Amino acid sequence: MFCLPHHHRKLPAIAAIVIFAVAISSAGCSQNPYLAAPGGAAWNMPANAAISQNDARLAELNRRVQLLDDNNRQLTTQLAQSDQQIQVYKDESELLRNQLAAVSNQMESTAIAARNAQTQVRGMQASAQVRGGATIQPNTNLTQMASRLNLGGIPVQQDGNVIRISVPSDQLFAPGSAQMNAQAATTLDPIATQLVRMFPRNRIGIEGYTDNAPLYGGGFASAHQLTAAQASAVLDLLSRRNGMPPNQLFTVAQGSNNPRQSNDTPAGRAANRRVELVIYPDNY
């Protein structure tokens, strides 16, 4: 019987061990989840975890964006409300300024009316003395001197013991205004020159008259306020420009009283708008 050498008998055993090891290794690798085929559940686990984390971060970012958007809308609403409140304050401030200006104008008109009332009282007292004749020494030459007045078409009238010089207001002021125009000085200068020369000591009243037309603009609430301001403007010009003593002069506001003509026509209303310089026989 043929026998293998001793070392040759070990080969089958070694081969069997190798085959067994390969089989064990193959079985173990087929059950390893990290070596499983792509697309299986074990293969997808890391990817699913990353997607979940990204979704969470995205949701958080969306929540923050929404919060910022809500805050922005609130701030926009608050800003609009603040702008509206600022406009309300501006409107109220403008209203208060207008009311203050109106009160100031009213106070000024009242002060003018008060001063004119004082001068009017003095004028009425002087006029009453003229009518009563108790304490007055009339100027016997008054009538003669009236005839010597040459005022270039300005009407001069003897009215009892007084002389009236009637100056159309339209030659001195714009209608409804007490602001003298450029023609006023040219009209009044010749009159003042003759008054200073012929009646240096006589009391002279300045009476303002107007028509019954409604007042527009000028800041005067009544015809009396308008005529008082016009008479005061004439007094100021005669004393300041022509050097007539202020205590020789006084003003009277007649308003629309004592019209010379009917107010039904433009010509009649123009004739009623006048400033009369009234020369009294008594001395100041």
UniProtKB/TrEMBL annotation:
Residues 51-106 form a coiled coil. Gene3D superfamilies: OmpA-like domain (3.30.1330.60). GO terms for cellular component: membrane. InterPro entries: Bact_OuterMem_StrucFunc, OmpA-like, OmpA-like_sf. It comes from the Bacteria. Keywords: Coiled coil, Membrane, Signal. Residues 159-283 form the OmpA-like domain. Residues 1-27 form the signal peptide. This is Motility protein B. It comes from Rubripirellula reticaptiva. The gene is motB_2.
